[in-house]
Amino acid sequence: MDDVRSQIDAHAEPLVEARERLALVRSAAMAFTGSLRTYASGSLAQHTFIHPIGDGDGGLVLDRRVYPGLGPDGGGETPADIAAELCRLLGPAARKVYPNARCGTSKRGPKLTFGQPVDGQDPTVDLVVALTRKDATGLWIPNLKNDTWEASDPEHHVELFTSGKLSLRRTRRRVVRLLKAWNKQYSVPGFSSHNLTVWAWEFIDPGMGMATALSAVLTRAARRVDSGNATVDPAGVSPNVRLLVPRDIASRRLRTAATGLEEALAHDDDRDAVLSALSRVFYKYIDDPSSRSLAQKIAVLRQPGPVSSALLGLGGSPAPIPAVRSYGAPADGR
Q1: DSSP string over 114-132
Q2: Contact present, 165 and 206 (Cβ < 8 Å)
Q3: pLDDT digit string, tens, across residues 239-250
Q4: Closest residue by Cα to residue 18 from 52, 62, 63, 65
Q5: Phi and psi dihedrals of 200, rounded to 5?
Q6: What is the per-residue pLDDT across 188-214, written as a single tens digit (0 to 9) for each?
């Protein structure tokens, strides 16, 4: 498991750069009219980034009273215009430090690119432009794809997912990173990072080690998906968390991974058995030793001249094996 972690953990320099870029954008955003506060969210705030670094998430909370026409609690104005207005502030501010910076939009608000890679990575910043809610907890955040507002509580999510004793927080972070790497092996990931984080928060108990905790998350998540039960927003604000693939596919992936972890834990004293089991889970990161052994034997068979059974790892007395020509006929031409 540590070998997988060494391959997926975020590199230090781009991670520091992502934090600095988010801090710069948050500071600039406070000059926007009606600003109440900014916040960090997502992987950066929860310490669950994996390599390569993507975007640093954060938000700007606006005072709803300054914008009485904006949002569901006001006059119903949609978020597109306010997001564009914020972008006009953030772009020039970012270019004072990063001359190639540009501000566009993502689903939730302004998205800043910087055009200045670090260690081959160029972290972006996504800044949600959010409104306080009149009679409820959480925030109104944009869905710019359809120009509407949706209820969420990203600030409370960070509080929940970074709660608990240090040992629990450390295990939870490591498991979330492993889950992200497992999920991203598929050409179409089955689960959002938020979904995986919610499961880790729900299913990891204090005192669990990393491997046991990962196994618990996969097993319990598989049971939930199999049962058809929903994963609810732990903050009690957003709609239920959605799967990104059909339920039967999500279930099959989870069960396959859970079985691999169970087998690895059951044979923890046998390195090859562990590697073989985990190679079915982290197939882009771990090689199956039995496959390597088979490949070595095939390579021996392809060598010209007599081949001893001892070279193939077979028992009994050595027996010569006639060389085979490339087109498959025996060497004597019969």
Answers
A1: ----BTTB--EEEEEEEEE
A2: yes
A3: 999 999 999 999
A4: 52
A5: -60, -40
A6: 999 999 999 999 999 999 999 999 999
